[in-house]
Amino acid sequence: QGQKKLSCNPKKENGTHVVLCELGNPMKAGARITVDMELSVSGLEDMGDAITFHLQLRSKNSPSSTSVMVTVPVEAEAEMELRGNSLPATMVLPTSWHWVEGSQRLEDHGIKVEHVYELHNKGPGTVCGVTLSLAVPHLLGDHVLLYLLELGTEGGMNCSQHPVLNPAQV
User: What is the pTM of this model?
Assistant: First the structure.
């Protein structure tokens, strides 16, 4: 009928974490109790998509007990943000400039532009196994639009390179 706060105590039993909550003593025969519990569990990043709790109801006056398994879905939440810029931010090719076929000089392939992308985790959860795919248009019809020279990463990321990266070995 009335709401009461439970007295709960965490402890370790047989290598597992146990939370013992005292529901009331003495309890009348046939009494029905509804308990809402809020649990805070850390380190769930590698637990998969659910966590299972074993709940057991025991009476000090009876050797029997009732137990039930409760499975709670785990949903990780993280917001990713992609930032990028180009250095220089703008460029204009002279009208007299032409791409030199077969040249090994960088300036004969165009003006160097560096594109930098940063992927940030804004939280609140951690992330792993993130894949970022960047599609860079390097051809316009049969003409070279951007000559892709190199691709680099920082911060322990793996990168698979585009097959036409630096085809003239400039």
Answer: 0.51
Query: Per the structure block, which two tokens stand in for 162?
Result: 């585009």
d(CA 36, CA 21): 12
Measured distance CA(23)–CA(7) in Å, rounded: 8
Q: Rounded to whole angstroms, how far apart are CA atoms 134 and 90?
A: 20
pLDDT in tens, 32-75: 777 777 777 777 766 778 888 888 877 777 777 788 898 988 87
Instruction: Please give, one letter per residue, the 3-state secondary structure of 14-81.
Output: CCEEEEEEECCCCCCCCCCCCCCCCCCCCCCCCCCCEEEEEEEEECCCCCCEEEEEEEEECCCCEEEE
- Alpha-carbon distances, residue 125 vs 21, 42, 121, 158 (angstroms): 30, 11, 8, 21
* Other C-beta atoms lying within 10 Å of the C-beta of residue 147: 19
